[in-house]
Amino acid sequence: MDKKNLIALSRRNFLLSAAASGLAAPAIAQSANTTEVERDITEVVRRNISSFRSLDWQPYFNNLRKGAILVDIDSRALHMWTEDGGYKLYPSSVPLSEDLTRRGRTQVIRKVDGPSWAPTPAMKKRNPEWPDFVGPGPDNPLGTHALYLSWKYYRIHGTHDTRKIGRRSSNGCIGLYNEHIAEVFSKAAVGTQVLLI
User: Fold this and answer.
1) Residues annotated as part of the active site
2) Can you give the pTM of this predicted structure?
3) Of 116, 93, 109, 91, whose CA–CA distance to 171 is shortest?
């Protein structure tokens, strides 16, 4: 074999082995990086990649007055339309179990930049070791911003624990990366319609 063919063969072997190891790495990382709270890590985790797609607002809302937010629990995605028809799709965390999940129509009733947090009575019963109150800051489970919904105890909020996004990891709320909730917060208004499906 001449030197030119040997170099081409070596380059091809390198690229093939790099591609093979590159393809295997995400699968290893995904299965090794199971961080769902209160779940058995041996349980198969359903990924939302295939169902994470853009949607039209018309099947879900009559209008876009004050904007609209659709949360697809199964896809673990939050869809937001602004009043002028702008659209964004965000990955989200969703409730741990069906009994913690609420579906239906609600609306934003309050917006808080730098929210404080207190566990609900049900959370405190399940987790008596949790603190009674956490002020704004890096330890706050609500992240940097929160949209309070008309349903008591339910919010769309940020999180400082980015491992939760894309997973069943909340006690009922919908969580977003802090940079995403800041965006949603800036576009949402008190009265923005919200639908959880």
Assistant:
1) 157, 173
2) 0.74
3) 93
